[in-house]
Amino acid sequence: MEELEKLLSRLVDFLIITFKKINIFLVTYYDKLLFYFNKQNTIKKMYEPSIKKRTEENAKLNDTLKQLKLEEYTLNNSIKNAKNKLFMLEKKIDSTEDCIKNTMP
Asked: Is the pTM of this model over 0.70?
């Protein structure tokens, strides 16, 4: 009987110690998680203005880039039209010169 009481006492002590260790582990794990989440929020709050500023600058630069691409497209079209007009004028000049040469004896 006495051995059974000792065994039960040891078993109860073991269970109590095990539950305390599990409790300590869970509390420390929770604290670490909480620390990491707080750290993440702190970092987010620290860098949020900088990120917002850079995002706005990026949006402005993208708008400027779109405008420049549109201007480049219109300039390329103007150059193409001017080359076509020049080609047509050169053709007219050549045909006029040929007519002048052919009409003169």
From this structure: no
